[in-house]
């Protein structure tokens, strides 16, 4: 509880609180420090664990630092001209062996619990197949008529804050129209280098299994606010799960060094209400009845 309060306080300080916004936009904040606000239990538990470790390591560092200062002042040659003659102190040796073991045990228990919580896929309502390609993501809904589309980064020209100064209002309008067409409701661009032409759409408060693989090299599907980061490996199937508590749009990126455009394969996830998701499925069935048409990769996926 204390850890949660401290984390909330620090995230407010660093301007990372999004509660003021009508819809959660899970994107990084300029000059933001600390961890982003979690959007589900997985991320919340990970962040709590992070704070627990940070507090423990800070206390240890302060303790060792003070110990060194005290020894340097109290036992220097000037203040302590005559050295002690003893070589052992059994009690001290027991303490400096036992205390670190206890600290490690205190860390290991919540760590292993969290590892299993994230790793073991619970009962989920449906699955989504995610394929990493050079350099975009293909999403497939096997439980929803095999809806399939590929998410490609929105070019820099669509953003006013792009460093090349090549902002083109038409590119922005076109990108927003494309996302709006895909979603079936009005959408705006939120973040340069993070927005994609289509978004993964998932319902809120629903456990979803994510099957991950790749068509060429190793990628990693990572959305920090969902507490999810898992490698997409060619020829192998990895599985994880998400259950998101908040409606909004959340961003992530490939976090495996997969090649020259590694930095340009972002992940945009639109979390909607269950009713809106049912509506979107109908909308998407119409859009993607012919299979993936929005984009293909060099490999023809
Ligand atoms: Cu990648």
In terms of topology, how is this protein built?
Elements: H1 2-13, E1 24-26, H2 41-74, H3 90-119, E2 126-133, E3 136-141, E4 147-151, H4 169-183, E5 200-203, E6 208-214, E7 219-223, E8 228-232, E9 238-242, E10 248-254, E11 266-272, H5 274-287
Parallel strand pairs: 1-10, 2-6, 5-11
Antiparallel strand pairs: 2-3, 3-4, 6-9, 7-8, 7-10, 10-11
Helix pairs in contact: 2-3
Bound molecules: copper (II) ion.
Copper (II) ion is lined by residues 132, 219, 254, 256, 258, 262, 265.
Helical stretch tally: 5
Q: How can the largest sheet be summarized?
A: 6 strands, mixed
Judged by helices, strands and strand pairing, the structural class is alpha/beta
Count of beta strands: 11
Provide a descriptive summary of the structure in words.
This protein is of the alpha/beta class and 301 residues long. The chain has 5 helices and 11 strands. Strands 1, 5, 7, 8, 10 and 11 form a 6-stranded mixed beta sheet that branches. Helix 2 packs antiparallel against helix 3 (90-119). It binds copper (II) ion. Copper (II) ion is lined by residues 132, 219, 254, 256, 258, 262, 265.
